[in-house]
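Re: Re: ligand-bound prediction request (bumping)

Still looking for help on this. To restate: I need the protein modeled with magnesium ion bound, output as structure tokens. Inputs repeated here so nobody has to scroll up.
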Amino acid sequence: MYTLEFWQKRASDLYLPANALIDGKPVNAQDGATFAAINPATNNVLAQVSACGQAEVDLAVASARRAFEQGPWARMAPTERKKVLLRLAELIMAHREELALLDSLNMGKPVMDAYNIDVPGSAQVFAWYGEALDKLYDQVAPTAPHALATITREALGVVAAVVPWNFPLDMAAWKLAPALAAGNSVVLKPAEQSPFSALRLAQLALQAGVPEGVLNVVPGLGEQAGQALGLHPDVDCLVFTGSTQVGKYFMQYSAQSNLKQVWLECGGKSPNLVFENCQDLDLAAEKAAFGIFFNQGEVCSANSRLYVQRSIHDEFIERLQAKARQWLPGNPLDPASRAGAIVDAGQTGRIEAAIARAGQEGARLICGGRRLTIDGSDNYIEPTIFAGVDGRMSLAREEVFGPVLAVSAFDSEEQAVRLANDSIYGLAASVWSDDFNQVHRVARALKAGTVSVNTVDALDVTVPFGGGRQSGFGRDLSLHSFDKYSQLKTTWYQLRA
Ligand code: NAP
Ligand code: MG
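Reply:
Sorry for the wait, this slipped through. Here it is.
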């Protein structure tokens, strides 16, 4: 049903939200500052977007504070808040094409991926937290009979969320849904590469009945709007998804300001282990390719390190090469494209540099490796595989955030686990084996927030997502994410005998 022509036509008259949304109203930056939102698939400027700075962040935080202290949202019966979040989920689906296009045009992902995965995924997250929030009970402590002690969860107040560009709508939803469900007010800063879907989402939230001031969006640059949120004395909690480097800045901002809670979802270099007793090597190869080439490799939990048992190594590489060919990038608006454009010229250049460096350090190029020009834009990278990657090479250690896979051979289970855990990161890992005891041993030994067994990138709103080490701490999704958005209150009632 969907064709390139359909999406091109739809894109030509698409409404592009370009103002901040503060206190329920569209707002320009006070100094008139804007930044250009560029389509990486054409290098055309899509719109000039308000570049929020200190002044707008102050307004947004004040609005969020007012809404939290005086407004109805935090005081609403859970069943009522639930209705609003369920309405928002429905509105997201009603605007599925529009939201999919906004993300695709902004950051280059295939529009059909946004349509089939990102948009329904974000609707599901709002619906799930909406459904959950009136089924949460608090606790009574097992005190001696002379007292009653309740342990209740309370909203924190003003939550600031700073998110990246790789899944713009979903990263916003993962933060907003539980934060709002818990009764907080939120100020959201999308990445400068991808402000549109967050701004549109906030408009839909208003339409669904989220009161003015409860959800504010301040597009802008990281060093301005992002830093101002990190340092703000009236933000209670800062949730972040992005690079490890910037995550570290947020911990510093907190220490320099009001010791706001900081929760970080940062980078990764996730290992994928394929053992010789894996029965379905073709599926393992297909998923290994998906694990690194989906979303142009711009995935925090991308399976960017592949460890294959030496006895099956060469055969596996052959299968993998065939699978890689299916991930050649194309016009993101073409439903036939499985991969699209890299988010911008800067990131494309960094991926190119990582490829060049891997070659210089002695890794063996199996396929890909080139920057491509498609329809006049050169923000494309071929699906790229290097073999013979040594644990000391930068390709084994540093996150590329592009479609570049590092393959190494191993001889024993013990060696495979050691190589997999030899990283500063600990976000995700995958294991392929049909030996029941082996998968249990290995899954336990891997240092990762999520271990996928006989699949990759296992992800569902029902299970926590996040990592350890320098991939961050705290968890998105599932009921566990409420730990980020609420604090415990103990109330002790001393009783007379
Ligand atoms: P990034 O450069 O760290 O940016 C993330 C956010 O932080 C953006 O909104 C950015 O704003 C802002 N920012 C940048 N510099 C800042 C500063 N000095 N002070 C305050 N805020 C600042 O990351 P990205 O390039 O957008 O995304 C890729 C990274 O995200 C990868 O490392 C990936 O692994 C990670 N990621 C992690 C997860 C996870 O769940 N663990 C999920 C997705 C992505 P501007 O864009 O406007 O500069
Ligand atoms: Mg950025």
